[in-house]
Amino acid sequence: MIEPLLQVRDLSVRYGAASVLEDVNFDLLAGETLGLVGESGSGKSTLARALLRLVPVSRGEVLWRGRNLLSCGAAEMRKHRRDLQIVFQDPLSSLNPRMTAGQILAEPLKIFEPALSARDRQARIDAMLERVGLGKAVARRYPREFSGGQCQRIGIARAMMLNPQLIVCDEPVSSLDVSIQGQIVNLLLDLQRDFGIALLFISHNLAVVRHLSRRVLVIYLGRLVEIAPRDALFAAPVHPYTRGLLAAASGVALGEAEPPPSERPSGCVFRARCPHRQDLCAVAQPALQAVGPEHFVACRRARDLMS
Amino acid sequence: MADVLNIEDLSIEFLKGQRIAAVREVSLRVTQGECVGIVGESGSGKTQIFMGALGLLPGSARATGSVRFENAEILGAPRAALNRIRGSRLCMVFQDPMSSLTPHLRIATQLAEVLVCHRGMSWRDSEQAALRMLDRVRVPEAKRRLRQYPHQLSGGMRQRVTIAMSLLCEPALMIADEPTTALDVTVQAQIIDLLRTLRHEFGTAFVLISHDLAVVGGLADRILVMYAGRVIESADAAQLMSRPRHPYTAELLRCLPDLSAPPLERMPSLPGQPPDAAHPAAGCEFAPRCRYAVQRCREQRPPLRQLGETQVACHFPVGS
Questions:
Q1: Tens digit of each residue's pLDDT, chain A (307 residues)
Q2: pLDDT of the residue at A174
Q3: Residue A186: which of B153, B192, B266 has the nearest Cβ?
Q4: C-alpha A45: how far from chain center
Q5: DSSP letter at B86?
Q6: Distance from CA of A264 to the nearest CA of B (A)
């Protein structure tokens, strides 16, 4: 049994009275690609930020190779940050407009490897620019001189500079044109394979998640509702929400209109829209239960739905 | 069928700083009750055509050509004339429903205002009509929603409200600009279903603008594909989806995800970068990314020409 790289235990985030994430539990293995699918307001970006301690967490643990990131001191956290990187959705606004591509990539090296000579630093930057398909000639150019897809390559190169063990990718292709999305997904796949980096890939786009992930987490209104290996999830989804999501992707609409986030139902979070709801679904949010190898579903009717 | 909208040779340039040609010699007709889809990626000019047609361009832009709506020229028409048709005969639904609703007004006020302004109806009657319209666009608990503010509704409900608003005066043409892009996947399919139903109920002509060929393919009778400000292919929806003639259209179709097929090793994509509007190419704008491009494509721009049932701007159309 390999020790997981990341273990998330009962992670909960509240903003005032609003519960954004509730009791999220999952493991991420070294070198694994884990997809996280959810719609707007589901808490997927909050989860990404909570893992990196970019938002305050109200409860739970984030164990990074056994150490709880949420309770470690500033110096130790800084040490871990080199191994934990993030790529954001909007490639242009996540790059400093007053720095050239070369300066942006130099930053992590200056902070974490100050002993590196200017020459070695430049060599590392050039090599990385080549690796992400931009070429070292672009090092002097500013973010505004690049297209969206090229900016995202710079964002990925910046995340890669320190040879991290995990990159959290928060909707990295959602703001890109369809013809460019595949380029970026394929680049991430190549980097993941060549360097053995683990990826937590967050997206609302099922097709993109399917390309990248070994396992997929499905999140709805702050709760994980299904965790499954990729093929099991797409061939035999169990949770009614996952089924609705897959059907919607092929054009079949879910019957019920979605309630506003402020009108979250009691009991199971999906109850108001669920075609299979029963009275007992109003009682409490069901816990994740195993329904197959590496396959977990948070639904009281999971067994009936599978038969 | 009579033309509702007839755009001829429309070009739009932005003159501030660098001169940018956003729309170049676009012609487009929409007949009564027809649904025309406009597909293109960001910067292809698909939205600007209609910003130009509706007189919504900034002062730094210049539009030339002709835009006839219900047989009257509206390009460059005075604001008073445009105000009579905008929001009543000719409506636009935008991508982000939150920013097209006024945040501090109740839904009832925003909807009723349309009829008070355009039809001179009383507020009381207008609110009754608004309630009936919310029912028609399937907003659940319409009565309660009327008393609420935009932030109290979900994204899908907000988009239903903006659709209701645009239908209140029974327009001859509704332009829906990426109406589902800002919405969740499960809600997108609901809104598309709604648009399909409304089209038949109201007999309104539609222009559906989207980057997503799948969305447009499911609704439109006819599709125009745009690239770098020009129409590069135009055909019947079924024809275009099954037998694309322009290599760019074919590539877009290849990039459409198919969740029913086994997963591919690589995700389909197009090589290269989107065109740079500030530096237009001498020949075909798509040539740098086209797998079939030859010298002639780089030097000579292919005109839009009739080829069987399709209009295509390519020297070497696919499948000929």
A1: 568 999 999 999 998 888 899 999 999 999 999 999 988 888 999 999 999 999 999 999 999 999 999 999 999 999 999 999 999 988 888 999 999 999 999 999 999 999 999 999 999 999 999 999 999 999 999 999 898 899 999 999 999 999 999 999 999 998 888 888 999 999 999 999 999 999 999 998 888 899 889 999 999 999 999 999 999 999 999 999 999 999 888 777 776 667 776 777 788 989 988 999 999 899 888 999 999 999 999 999 999 999 8
A2: 86
A3: B266
A4: 7
A5: B
A6: 11
Distances (CA, A) of A194 to A19, A121, A189, B176: 39, 21, 9, 44
Q: Does A275 touch chain B (CB under 8 A)?
A: no
Q: Does B41 touch chain A (CB under 8 A)?
A: yes
Structure tokens at B307: 């080829």
Report the predicted TM-score, pTM, of the whole model to 2 decimal places: 0.88
Q: Give the whole-angstrom CA distance, residue A125 versus residue A121.
A: 6
Angle between helical axes of B155-167 and B107-119 (0-180°, round to 10): 10
Q: Which residues of A touch B163 (CB under 8 A)?
A: none
- Beta bridge mates, A197: none
Q: Closest approach of chain A CAs to the CA of B120, in angstroms? A: 33
A253 touches chain B (CB under 8 A): yes
Beta strands of chain A (E only): which ranges?
Answer: 6-15, 18-28, 33-37, 59-64, 67-68, 84-87, 166-170, 198-203, 215-220, 223-229, 289-292, 295-297
Q: Which among A207, A227, A203, A229 is positioned nearest to A217, based on CA atoms?
A: A227
Which backbone phi and psi does B175 adopt, to 5 degrees?
-105, 115
Cβ-Cβ contacts under 8 Å for A175 (sequence gap 6 or more)? A89, A90, A91, A148
How many C-beta atoms surround the C-beta of residue A52 within 10 A? Answer: 17
Of the partner residues A178, A254, A259, the one whose CB lies closest to the CB of residue B211: A178
CA angle, B184 then B187 then B190, to 5°: 155
| Residue B260 burial by Cβ neighbours in a 10 Å radius (0-12, 13-18, 19+) | exposed
Check: CB of residue A220 under 8 Å from CB of residue B270: no
ipTM score over 0.85, yes or no: no
3-state helix/strand/coil string of A22-38 = EEEEEEECCCCEEEEEC
For residue A62, the distance in angstroms to the closest alpha carbon of chain B comes to: 29
Which has more pLDDT, B35 or B182? B35
